[in-house]
Amino acid sequence: MSSSGVTPSSLAELLSSDNCVKLAGVDVDGILRGKLVSKKKFLSIAEAGFGFCSVIFGWDMHDQTYLKELKVSNAENGYRDMLAIPDLSSFRRIPWENNVPFFLVDFFDPETKKPIAPCSRGLLRTQLGKVQEKGYEAMAGAEYEFYTFRTPDSSSASPASFLQQNPPSQLPSLTEGMFGYSLNRPVHNKDWYYDVYDTCAKFHCDIEGWHTESGPGVYEAALEFGEVSQMADRASLFKYVVKSVGVNHGITPCFMAKPKQGLPGNSGHMHISIVDKDGKNLFARDSMDDGAKWTDIAGLSDLGRHFLAGLLEGLPDIMPMLAPTVNSYKRLVENFWAPVTVSWGLEHRAASIRLISPPTSKAGATRFEVRTPGADSNPHLVLAAILGCGWRGVEKKLEIPCPPLALGQDTGGSNDLGERLAKSLKEATARFMRRESVAREIFGDDFVDHFGGTRENEVRLFDEAVTDWYVFS
Predict the structure, then answer these.
(1) In what order do the strands lie in the sheet with 81-94?
(2) C-alpha to C-alpha distance for 331 and 308, rounded to whole angstroms
(3) H/E segment holding residue 118
(4) If I label 337, which of 34, 41, 61, 133 is the partner at 20 to 30 A Cα–Cα?
(5) What is the DSSP string of 187-221?
(6) In the prediction, which pLDDT does 470 show?
(7) What is the residue-wise DSSP string for 315-360?
(8) What's the mean pLDDT in 452-456?
(9) What is the pTM (predicted TM-score) of this model?
(10) Cβ atoms of 257 and 328 closer than 8 Å
(11) 473 vs 289, which has greater pLDDT?
(12) pLDDT given for residue 332 in this prediction
């Protein structure tokens, strides 16, 4: 969302009829962490910022501190405060909470005033800055699939207690059966269906396309295309809307990568393109290249080819940023329309990177759809990873390392069809953190050590878990 003219001097007038403001930052898992403050408090900290406990980067999504303490937040430094500064350009009002004003915040080191390493909004801004230094802008679009389950609405039993007492595998789906793109299924829950769509528009995370996906109670939303930094914010806030709106309808959404065995998982596909100051698509070639090495890239510019090469070369090293949980790798398996290799192709939905360009689409719509991320990923980290790897390819003028998949050709995990991506979070994290990792080159040691440490924590907890898979003899 644009700033709409919001400045520190205009805040008092903007909030003249309000008595409080809600603030939130994004943690490494993509979870919004924040609080409500009085208007008086907000006006006093809108420019200088305020102290925010760093423990949100010292614990996991269940508020359990990491077994191995990390540099930013730990017992030794007393889980000290970070500096949180509101981003005035993120202003919007929360329609389901009496239109209370809402702002996102960024996190900085209180001494150096530099963004802290695990601040995902700051990481994305840094990668975007490399593109903007050339006078260009990055554009993006996000698509999210998610399952929906029936739970008590807010007027009856607590949805949280209901979920605790009922195993996820036994929760009733909102609808049954496999009905992708159904016009009839949404009619069964039309109040919720249209409430989500309308509320997203009011909260400035507009939906461009909204339909059922194949699977019981599965829906997919394509968010309105826009600038990368705004897209990442809107993607995070979309999940906030869906979860909040569902409460009053007795519906709980699930953005896990793989909620149900034997059924498709939840993807979080990202579309990316680069434009110049006039909005011209820089991935599009001015005219078709009849001498291209592969016909798939005949309509792709040299910049676009280098960007693709950077994505392909970096993909194996950034997997935890795209697939951040143990469960993520249950989705990335063969035969479920989920990419499992370093692969690409023109209009190819089995590949990790789907190229959309002439001759099958208009030049102005030329872009890459990165199909590896799941719905459980942090959109700021996903877009930072995509931009970082792609722009590294541009700067180094990398060459595309592998041929495209032919139409009708599936990856299938075969070695001759591209390098197999990590099969587990443990494997992915080890590659991400290794000394010669592309991730370290792009994002620096501080981020890789912190984020990698958080993933190592999840792996260790999983290794110690006794799950339903085990049968007592």
Answers:
(1) 32-38, 20-26, 100-108, 81-94, 50-53
(2) 24
(3) none
(4) 61
(5) GGGHHHHHHHHHHHHHTT--EEEEEE-SSTTEEEE
(6) 79
(7) GGGSHHHHS-STTHHHHS-TTSS---BS-EEET-TTSSEEEE-TTS
(8) 98
(9) 0.95
(10) yes
(11) 289
(12) 95
> To which residue do tokens 């001015």 refer?
286
For the chain, what percent of residues have pLDDT higher than 70? 93
Distance separating alpha carbons of residues 375 and 270, to the nearest angstrom: 10
Task: List Cα–Cα distances, 417 to 292, 330, 356, 390, 411, in angstroms.
Answer: 21, 21, 20, 21, 6
Closest CA to 438 of 265, 340, 321: 321
Residue 282 has pLDDT above 50, yes or no: yes
What is the distance between the terminal CA atoms of the chain, rounded to a whole angstrom? 58
For 332, list phi and psi in degrees, rounded to 5: -85, 70
Encoded amino acid at 180, one letter: G
* Residue 448 one-letter amino acid: V
Q: CA-based angle 293:298:304, to the nearest 5? A: 95
341-360 pLDDT tens trace? 999 999 999 999 999 999 99
Q: How far apart are CA 115 and CA 109, in angstroms?
A: 6
C-alpha to C-alpha distance for 376 and 238, rounded to whole angstroms: 13
